[in-house]
Amino acid sequence: MNSFTKNNTEKIYITGEQKLTGSVNISGAKNAALPLMTLSLIINKDFNLYNVPDLADTRLMSNLLIDLGIDINWGKGNLTFNGKPRKDEASYDLVRQMRASILVLGPLLASKGSAKVPLPGGCAIGSRPIDLHVMVMEALGANVIFDRGFIISSLGNEGLKGGVINFPKVSVGATESAIMTAVLAKGQTKIFNAAREPEVTDLANCLNKAGADIKGLGTGSLIINGVKELNKVSHSVVSDRIEAASFAIASSITMGNVEINNINPKNLTEFTNVLKLTGSKVEIFENSMKVSCSQKPKTHNVKTDPYPGFPTDLQAQYMALMAIANGKTLIRETIFENRFMHVPELMRMGAKIFVNQQEAEIYGVKKLKGAKVMASDLRASMSLILAALAASGTSEIDGLYHLDRGYENLEDKLTDLGAIIKRSN
Ligand code: UD1
Q1: Is the CB of 128 under 6 A from ligand 1?
Q2: Of 65, 183, 292, 300, which alpha carbon lies 20 to 30 A from 328's?
Q3: Domain check: are 230 and 105 in the same one?
Q4: φ, ψ dihedrals at 9, nearest 5°
């Protein structure tokens, strides 16, 4: 069971400079589990999900779905969903806590014929508009209005109709919204410039097993032939490539030797190529990889991009590694406008970094030093954990709420690898 923050005074203390060694099992992907869970709004009987990570975000999504009327049985990593939504309005108190709540919009509309979802609001890493989700609903025949902080969408007599969706920019969430809504629309939907992230493909795979007809999986062009209903289905959530890569960096940054299990290395190709270029040894097997490092990292510039490019969700963690590299690294963030908030915190640990709009220049230092730091968002918090693992002395990391949103059993997993880490007030 995950030790979610019990109160906001809890902190993580890490004493660094321990080489991590051993093996770690990677959990199911949060970013796949969240959209998959919302399918319970349109698969009304015996929908089973396995390998669901127990995280603050998946618990929150579960509460949101229960509030809408879905019956959920949580076993250890396994969830069974039954029943239909009883109402069409998502709870403001729950939605405001998590951006990904917007994912209920399409399935709720498909199930109830109308959906009232509070605007999720901005978040630390950027303004994060939802215009593309709205575009999807309208393209599939919904009428959408905004009223007192709610997105209110409704269908006419004809219900959901297939349409053409040409995304002006790649969006993971909006592609997922389009897929989940179009599977039950009358006729054919074509989606262009779709996100190709493995989590999107996992969603489509689960839907196809439930009787949906989605073609073009893993490409930017999807064709969906609507079906009348979806059948019961059991599906195992794809493993978390961001967690896997975070542990790979933990191995490299501590000059350790870690075997990372329960993964699909194909989903990590761009990342592992980059890690090799920085001097780490990466051995790839069918469902695992071994990452070791015996030298100071070499610099290598990266630019974040939609999949299969370098993930924005690894930018902060990679920056921690480059903070101790031999020389200067450029990191360019192209997905979110405000995703360098870990920089001042890394600098508190002795990193030398200059930010100019969307680009960070990192000048590797000999050694990071433990300090008191504050996590600002989910991936930034992992970046600070990684820096603390490499730093001399003890670091104190505050703002654990963010970390608990996305890393299952992190302290236990790191302790098993030899880290000195504890959570306390
Ligand atoms: C998902 C991931 C998040 C990851 C991000 C990019 C989940 C739960 N979260 O977030 O961890 O960092 O993909 O890989 O899967 N945009 C618009 N209008 C919209 C929607 C998005 O302009 O309606 C913009 C965003 O502001 C951003 C870009 O599109 O600049 C990509 O965002 P998107 O892929 O939608 O991110 P999320 O699905 O929210």
Answers
A1: yes
A2: 292
A3: yes
A4: -100, -5
